[in-house]
Amino acid sequence: MAWYTCLLTGIFVLLCALLYLDLSRFLEHNVEQSQIRRADQIADSLLSQIQKNGPSYAAAQAEAWFQPEISDRFIRITQTSGPLIYASGAPKDGSFDPSEVPPFQPSSDAQSFHKVKLSNGKALIVAALNYKIAHGGTYIVESGTLLDPMELNHLILQLVIGLPLGVLIITAGGNILVRRALMPVERITRAAEQITQHNLSERLPVSRTGDELERLSISLNRMIARLDDAFQNSKRFVADASHELRTPLTILRGELETLIEDNRLEPEIRERAASMFEEAVRLTRIVEQLFTLSRLDAGEAQAEWSRFDLANLAKTTADQMSLLAEDKNITIACDADQSVEVEGDPARLKQVVVNLLDNAIKYTQPGGAVQLHVRRANGHAVLDVEDNGVGIPREALPHVFERFYRVDQIRSGDFEGAGLGLSIVKSICSAHGAEIEATSFPSRGSRFRVTLPLSKN
Amino acid sequence: MRILVVEDEKKVADIVARGLKAERYAVDVSHDGQNGWEMADAYDYDLAILDLMLPGMNGTELLGKIRRKNPQIPILILTARDSMDDKVKNFEAGADDYLTKPFAFAELLVRVKALLRRGPVDRSSVLRVGDLEIDRLSQSVKRGGRKIELTAKEYSLLEYLASHPGRVFSRTMIIEHVWDQSFQGLTNIVDVYVRHLRSKVDDAFSVKLLRTVRGVGYSLSDEVAG
Predict the structure, then answer these.
(1) Among A141, A266, A368, A373, fewest CB within 10 Å belongs to which?
(2) What is the pLDDT of residues A385-403, one digit of tens each?
(3) Is residue A240 less than 8 Å (CB to CB) from chain B?
(4) Gyration radius (Cα) of chain A, Å
(5) How many CA atoms lie within 13 A of B166 on its CB side?
(6) Spatial separation of the C-alpha atoms in residues A56 and A322, rounded to whole Å
(7) Does the distance separating the beta carbons of B84 and A254 come in below 8 Å?
(8) What is the DSSP letter of B8?
(9) What is the pLDDT of residues A101-159, one digit of tens each?
(10) How far apart are CA B60 and CA B79, in angstroms?
């Protein structure tokens, strides 16, 4: 907007300057024309008298007819290379001193115009006429008048007041118009910001204006519908796939289980079968986790929601996992003494605590410490799981909640995770309207913070 | 004991039937709902195992019909679905237990046995495996006459393993019984607890009762490993 106002002001100033110059030129020209006409008049009416009645009569006539002193005029009549015949005196109001006007001598039968800068700062426009009388010699008639700056001053005043006012009105008006024109765009933008993968069924407002904006919002809505379709398809695919994999997995596991327990088989074969069974179990776990994720995506029914104390849940969970930590010589310090009531599915939120604690224990060196902290803060329930373990590399941090993401491929020696644990945690959090955030300082530890709404009253 | 298995996936039905027959149960298999109902109507079974997605007549309908005919028969549902809604619906329709695919046969057997001998008598009994004695009433454990102090979780784990001596329990089964669903996937917690339990129950004795079955899980048995 600023550049637009500047440009506008610039153009206005330029136009005004041109207007001013033009007008002053025009005024000057007008004055010049009127003076040359007067010089003509004087020449016509008086010069012939000089021959008849002598120069002093002509001078007296000029004085009487034109009254230059009263009407602030300047008149001078000179014979070419001869004596001064008449020169008007200082005007009554003393607005100029006629002696300041140098003699102008245009060549024969010519006229010239002059702008005399006076010492009092005013300007006198003088028209000089070289006039030749038949059988009588040549005369210079000069007629002048003050250039009245009144009109120009008026113009300047108008411009000085009018220009900023004009710029102001145009800028403000333009602003209002633009804003009104862009209001629907603003509405569309706000609505578009609200749309995430969880509410793709929502649509942007369409203003029936019949213009490009209506078409834009309609085609944006079509795009959202296509996105919605694509999302639904991929969710349905994950749900269907994990569902369809269950029966073959049941058979695979069942058959392998029979082999393992069959005493008639060679121990080596049973060992191989056990290895296959191990993988089948791992596959089962991945399928189950995917199924869990697809159910969370589908917005699992909130029928199982209840009010419970998150602090208590965290404490008992930490208790149940203490042996796991002790086994690695890691201490779990649990700070959750005040009850923090939240609403949700306790089993699911317990899974969050279990996964976060398990993760913390997994990535902490023996002898390290894990802290679990539950409290109220700013009208929310905040659960922190902090460790002083290896931490998460900066470049990996934004991806830790992605499906199948693993911080380091090397450490995948543990068969446990498929890289779905944290994405399940994230999905559970979203389903509860909770935020989860990971911060980490490599080699100093990481912290996972879950912020969820407190239960109402 | 005669068991009816209605499952349209022939291989799943086959595994279940084979496994149950090996445990000396009489097993009838049906692959569709209509036929399953005819069999249930014709014979008196001690237990029915039903798949939910069946051709002919769906599992829930079949469940209702069998229940109306015989209010006493224990019914176990097998299904790939595991949402809470389905669970509630089926318990209302009269299912006694529920197992989601993929399941371990060992788990199925545990449930079958539990369903077949429901009642307070068993609960009060003392479980014995070799010289190990578990008193379910007082929740006390003795081995060779000497009392062993266990934590609550260790006791639950031992009692669960002792409920079917010799049978291998997978880590997943153990987690679901001794912990809860939230711990699913955390199978190393089982290993840690078994290690602690072993140090209390087995370390001082020459006969080791707690056995690790590679890749599968754990079992409690006084039989010599073979």
Answers:
(1) A266
(2) 999 988 888 888 888 888 8
(3) no
(4) 50
(5) 11
(6) 132
(7) no
(8) S
(9) 888 877 777 888 888 888 887 888 888 888 887 767 788 888 888 887 777 788 888 88
(10) 11
Contacts of A71 (CB under 8 A, 6+ apart): A91
Residue B211 near residue B225, CB atoms below 8 Å: yes
Q: What's the distance, CA A266 to chain centroid? A: 74
Structure tokens at B217: 């899980």
Cα–Cα distance, B163 to B173 (Å, whole number): 13
Angstrom distance (rounded) from CA A305 to CA A92: 104
pTM assigned to the model: 0.63
B82 neighbors B100 (Cβ within 8 angstroms): yes
B224 lies within 8 A of chain A by CB: no
Distance from CA of B91 to the nearest CA of A (A): 16
**Amino acid making up residue A329:** N
Chain centre distance of CA B38: 27
CA A250 to chain centre: 57
How many DSSP H helices and E strands does chain A contain?
Answer: 10, 12
In this structure, which amino acid lies at residue A421? Answer: G
User: How many Cα atoms sit within 13 Å of A423 on the Cβ side?
Assistant: 19
Q: How far is CA B192 from CA A110, A208, A209, A340, A413, in A?
A: 123, 67, 69, 31, 18
d(CA B196, CA B189): 11
Partner residues linked to A454 by β-bridges: A342
Residue of B nearest to A352 (CA): B182
The set of residues, in sequence order, having a beta carbon less than 8 Å from that of B191 and lying 6+ positions away, is: B171
Q: Do B15 and A416 touch (CB under 8 A)?
A: no
